[in-house]
Amino acid sequence: MSTLLDRLPAPLLASHEPQAEQLALPLVWEVAPGTPAVPPVPRHLRLVGQEPPATHPTNGPATSPGGPPVPPPVWVARMARAIAEVACGDRPAQQLTRWVEKRQLAMLAARGKAAQRHPSAIHGRKARAAMRSLQQVRAIRVCPVAPGVAETSAVLVGDGRGRAVAMRFETVNDAWQITAIALG
Question: Of 24, 99, 117, 165, which has the fewest beta carbons less than 10 angstroms from its beta carbon?
């Protein structure tokens, strides 16, 4: 059985062979100048089968031998605000059980219950609810003390006044956990 290439004369066969290798062209498609046709993937989405990112909002920042020696400042800010909300009685303490040591969490829960029972909290509940969302993190300091240990502080501003939150982060089971809290 013969093919069409077998029937062609030798000079024609030689002209069909590629003389140089063709390289891939880098094509960049744009809808408009500066606007890519393919939008970036949102941070909260990932491909099925990929490993989850190291700083997942539900798991907290993970630590690894080659990872950062201190907790990320964004995580420190979130925890400082959440701790201040628990201490004021605006957030249930059970929401922080994964990231705060049990004794510290019990202290925060007791402080939050005392704040809710205070006469100013009972009479000014609407004003407190309006001001709660205005609490902002203004400054963060992260100081590594030892491998797997970092002491942090944050300044929160809201209700017309500033508050300080100091926290000690330690690695427990390859995740950052708060082992000491001081509120000012």
Answer: 24
